[in-house]
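Protocol step 4 of 6: record predicted structures for both targets in the notebook before any analysis. Target 1:
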Amino acid sequence: MTATDYIYDDPELGRFHIRVSFRARRLTFRAKERELWVTIPAGASVAEVKRAIDSLRPRLRQLMSAPKRPPVGWDYRIDAPCFHFSLAKGTASRFFLRREGEEMQLVCPPETDFSDAKMQDWLHRAVAEAMRRRAKEVLPLRLEMLARAHGLLYNKVKINASTGRWGSCSARGDINLSLHLMLLPLHLIDYVLLHELCHTREMNHGPGFWALLDRMTGGKARALREELKGYRCSF
């Protein structure tokens, strides 16, 4: 495969934008503007892409039917237990983030055109950046507190923008946490952090893992897992 970008039209799911990345190690899918974008490793064949689409078809169908993201405008707000966000009208011609007590605010020029599609893309990235900043304040400290309370050790923690999973833990004990955790109630944030901390001892989801997580959650591990399914890893 010599091209770096091409289009694949699926009879059911529609258009896939295929992008080849020399840094990618696996196929990754994301939805944007009701079309699907796929990043593939260099050397991956069209047949491999089609097989991946077929194997993930139920998940991709669900991804395409997900509600559209709400437009950002003057009345846009996020009021989650650990993340409060709003827009404020500024007096200058620049955008900037600021803190007002417990609330993150995006200050926008008074003439901001919220109907422009490119502006909406930028505004959603700005919301994500505000959420990332808050996540960096909250999640590492919370993880450290829980690790000490339960006598668990991890190597390092990173905040990412994943919309596919709330968190992950590598074999080296590196924990990755999605900034979208800031949209959850605190008890579910703690559940995800404890889930990943358990993987520093049990790198699978076998009986030993669930027994450990049950001890840490007062026997509520599976109930918390079911409750978490009611939330989307995005905003």
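Target 2:
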Amino acid sequence: MFYRGIGDIFVARVAGNIVNEDILGSLEYACKVSGSKLIVVLGYEYCGAIKSAIDDVELGNITTLLAKIKPAVKTASESFEGKKTSSNPEFVEEVCDHNVILGVENIRRNSPILREMEENGEIMIVGAVYDMKIGEVEFME
């Protein structure tokens, strides 16, 4: 996707691109210790975790993971006009966008290390959504 090989980028992947202590620790390591300069919270419109959060799926540890996506479902629901279900691609996309934005905000709020690095211009923290239909990444402002 970014035309990079093994060792070129540091990847911390998790369903629903949620931010928890393990992800924050990985990002802090990548930036403060290994020298990474860019954090991209990358969502995509067909995300199964997003759909499951919309559908209120409860199953083992998945329930805890999906709870971290629920704020995006709530925020998207407040402004979205139309069918608010996982079968509506426009609503899923709206939740995906909100989830990315909240992920970026979570990183800044919950990691003083990364927030300071960003404030000092040492790193950038951005959100983006991968459009699987056209194979492009759209960065958010």
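Step 5 preliminary note on target 2. The first strand starts at residue 38 and ends at 44. Residues 89-110 form the longest helix (22 residues).
Proceed to step 6 after PI sign-off.
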